[in-house]
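The passage that follows is intended for readers who have already worked through the single-chain material. We present the inputs for a multi-component assembly, then the predicted structure in tokenized form, and finally a short commentary. You are encouraged to pause after the input and sketch how you expect the pieces to fit together before reading on.
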Amino acid sequence: MSDPMRIRAVVKGEKVEVKILIAHAMETGQRKDAEGTVVPARYITKISASCNGREVLAADWGPSVSKNPYLSFRFKGGAKGDKLKITWTDTAGDSRSDEVSIA
Amino acid sequence: MFPGRRRLLIQLGRTGLAALTLASGLVPRLARAVEARPAFTAAGITDALKALGIANPAQSEAIHFRAPDIAENGAAVPVEVESALPGTREILLLVEKNPHVMSASFSFPDGTDAYVATRVKVAESSLIHAVIRTDAGAFYNAKLVKVTLGGCGG
Amino acid sequence: MKVTGMTLVRARWLLLAALCATAPLTLADDASPDVGAAMRRSFEAKHQAGMERLNQDDVQALCTRYTPASLPPAAAALIQQASLASVKPPAAGQYLGDYRRGEQIAQTGTGLQSSDDPAKPNGGNCYACHQLAASELAYGTIGPSLQRYGKLRGQSPAMLEAAWRKLYNPQADVPCSNMPRFGHQKILNEQQLKDLMAFLFDPASPVNQ
Amino acid sequence: MTTCCARRGLGAVLAGGALLLTGLVQAEDSTQDAIAEYRAMFGDDNPAELWQARGEVLWRAPRGPKKVSLQACDLGLGAGVIDGAYAQLPRWFDDTGQVQDLESRLVSCVTTLQGIPREQFLKVKFGDGDQQSDLEALTAYVVAASRGKPIVLPLRHPAEQAAYALGKAVFRYRAGPHDFACATCHADAGKRIRLQELPQLTTAAGAREAYTHWPAYRISQGELRTMEWRLQDCFRQQRLPQLKFGSEVAIGLTMFLAKTAEGGTLAAPGIKR
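Having made your guess, compare it with the prediction:
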């Protein structure tokens, strides 16, 4: 079970500035744990953002995006109170969505 | 083995035996079973761009690319890209010296700024390329990031 | 303290006598808490890092109590004398090994930690504290810069002997130095020390470029 | 496209050449400037927030055999008060008859209030990949509630004074194959290991710089690390055996650092290399 994302979405002028932190190990598939067992590859491959149902960003990631990923972007057409929804999917098929109201 | 990579190995060794192997896995050689997208398994810039259908991008100063000259830790190198090129559809991040160069791609629907900030793993001192796909073709800019050692080294 | 055990036991008595005669400070008088006992209660053995590592030899005990600046001259002299006696020169007076291997040792920070593989050779971690090759930006400043070490000094027998001594047991030159006693404490073996010597002195070494 | 140069680097060289600075000083400064830029680029976007959020859930949720939350936990300022509590730790607690740091106090609360056995709770003291540490999350949450607060440690209780004295003495205890003590690296001003500047922990300025930013998210490990972890790992690198969690040396050193940093404004959890 994954932990909630931290999403900040703030209106700045005519744009909405978004900052996201995601709890994800972004395992490369080469790391070994303390017992010497290889930790299987598991990383986010897809991430997308939508504002009131309209897609505002889509991204493809590989394992060289850092652990506990950070992502920031900006879009027009969002207003205070609008719902911003972020969704990611990883190589294990796990997926998570979190939603915030734009501040 | 390049000196930069070796340094990183030493640096990552600080968390012990586990980390010695972690270091080699910092930038993985991917099993095809896990990764089906050809650009993400490409070994070099040329192959990656080929997989993406991009040929001979031109360098452009209209791509603002911010990354530190020196990274204290290759596990997370902040990068910030903003494209002033009209009709920018996509920003791609490629780390030249990583065994798999392709790190991430971001696509921007109308109304979203051609801007992204994120953090990537950089195995050794390397050029990081920001490749931009626009309606009028592909462009790039690049920045050299040195990966160095910070702490006690063990 | 195998090598100098006898020397230092005697030295300790001499030191006690010297200190009692000149100052109220001795090894025995200690208003501070019993640190050694608290340490033993607060630690547990882990892998190669056994509890015996908490025990202090005489140099460690004195250098816990004093800094190089506050060390009483009598104590300094005794540390120097005993440490000098501990230095074992390399076989057949061959001081120089392979500078490439030496560079590896200087770059390697692992060895003797509870988390390290005891089967792997220990590092010297020289770059943690010293500037060496100009090309290496990630160097520490706890110790002096050793850039162009051999180029500035040449390879006279006296120079080689002095550098060997500093690597083997730096307490011989600077009592209560921060630098580990690489030879005396068997952190590095003779071949590794020779390789480091070559890293410092070889004209082809990156240190001397 | 691989022949492209580092534009920023070239610009710096041209600017420096115009000023005719000495090469060595310039190289030194530009290295430190670049490191400063690296750190600055992380800004306030600290993954430690992910631990804080998880810690808040753990703090509020009824858990353990007794199915109660930690909201009755007394961290020194009264039951359930977390605002500013970390700024006044370690401290003496009458109920346990011990000087405790935040982490050992949290363990007391979890065991006594929630009835979770100590061994079970401390099974994952320090997280690693999939193995999350509840202790680290709770610590992050409580620590963040002292952001902006000055460290206040009057040391009225004799046991607090004894802890401080022990920590101060341990700081200079040289041992192990490398003869290292905390003081080997942290007693002088302006030194660094590799490129890492070392705080001079015997001075108020140095101790504040270090203490006010711990616990911290460690970039190299992608984990939030606590002060107990920090001390344990320092001793590992000193080549000593393993420091026991909540031991008198751990508490003593924390007290010594915190007291030396007294008056400093907490900014933890921080973000570190």
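Commentary: DSSP finds eight helices and one strand in chain C. Chain C has two domains: 5-86, 91-208. How closely did your sketch match?
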